Amino acid sequence: MKVSVLVLASVLATLGTGAFAQAKEQFFPVLSGRTGPVAPNATPWANGHNDYMKLVNARGGINGVKTLVEECETAYATDRGVECYERLKGKHGGATVFQPLSTGITFALTEKVPADKIPMITSGYGRSDSADGGVFKWNFPLIGHYWVAGDTVLQHIGKQAGGMDKLKGKKIGVGYHDSPFGKELLPILQERAAQYGFTLQLLPIAAPGVEQKATWLQVRRDQPDYVILQTWGVMTPTAIKEAQAVGYPREKMFGTWWSGAEPDLKDIGQGAKGYSAVMMQHGAEPNSAVVKDILDKVHAKGQGTGPKDEVGSVLYMRGVLGALLATEGVRSAQERFGKGKVMTGEQARWGYENLNLTQAKLDALGFKGVMRPVSTNCVDHMGSAWARVHQWDGSKFIWTSDWLQADEQVIRPLVKNSADKYAAEKKLTRRSAADCQS
């Protein structure tokens, strides 16, 4: 009888330990795009995200709370993204935060997350107006949105021209994915065109973008002074090859941050030399401390998510940054709701709204030279508006600009006006001061 009691006690202890371990996992769902027209670009993002989550665990978790990741494949299709969201939102104790990696999916989920009380990080994509936390309580376009990309790439072009005033009378072509993603760039370009007196030649490109001959014949005929690309996946290398075919100089072509990564250019090589793209702070970062940590603590132990040779590449790093922001928001929430505890989506939302990633914190996490401080509040859900431009030298990217900061005096009114319009359409009221404190 005593033996049976001891055995039972042992079993209960084991079960208790298992239950405790389960309770100490923070669930981060991943809406991946490993298939379809954006697979070469979305795959390294997911690999970087998942590797950083593994690194967090190797470092001891978020104050002892381990990360748990589960993927659901969207193939960059909005309907599949919504299905994945519904499938994952309640799993493993409930989702902490979603990162859709798709503007179409973001638009759809913006309608759903408030009721489910799950935040959404959309770094560099989604709704630019969701930087206004007074209307978009659950959306966080942390460290940049499309209007930051558009403004900073224009600043770079202006500097090359000898000053923004020198853009007067110029023509700028805009090749864009004919979808909410592509069109989201246009308001800032139109605002700046009116301000500085240049004209825009709009060049919508139907997805997936493998047929662009007519577009580039139009470019050859009209000879815009510059071309900006807001493209993604196979659309980008196709655009660069077609520009090459019609003799449009790659030195006059500038991508936004989803249009300037290694998968876009590596197969074109020297033919893409001179092409530039604005980057959401980071670029390829093979020498960064965080990459060395991932190689040492994840890949060296045979736990890497993807191939070792992509670690540190542009889109891999964007996935790493996504995971950094996701986990540090939880760490911020723990400061208020309890260190070492698993945070609910609602608690994590507070963490993303009260994020304070100082340079010292970033450096300690291995991001020295990779990114700048991020600080959010109730009204500002973006927290940083810095960017840099890199250029393809035929085999790799090199930095060709100093740090650029989007002009908040121009962008903030655009954000507020668009957010107010959304609120009116959806019959929403702005958050009260009390809501901001809660």
UniProtKB/TrEMBL annotation:
State a single Pfam family of this protein: Peripla_BP_6
Q: Which UniProt keywords apply?
A: Signal
Has UniProt tagged this entry with the keyword Zinc? no
Check the record and name the SUPFAM superfamilies matching this protein. Answer: Periplasmic binding protein-like I
- UniProt xrefs under Gene3D superfamilies: 3.40.50.2300
Please list every transmembrane segment annotated in the UniProt record, as residue ranges: none
Q: Which residues form the signal peptide?
A: 1-23
Q: List, alphabetically, the InterPro entries matched.
A: Leu-bd (IPR028081), Peripla_BP_I (IPR028082)
Q: Which residues form the Leucine-binding protein domain?
A: 29-394
Q: Which CDD domains match?
A: PBP1_ABC_ligand_binding-like (cd06334)
Q: Which domain of life is it from?
A: Bacteria
- Give the family, as the similarity comment puts it: Belongs to the leucine-binding protein family.
Could you identify this protein by its name? Branched-chain amino acid ABC transporter substrate-binding protein
Record the organism: Polaromonas eurypsychrophila
What is this organism's lineage?
Bacteria, Pseudomonadati, Pseudomonadota, Betaproteobacteria, Burkholderiales
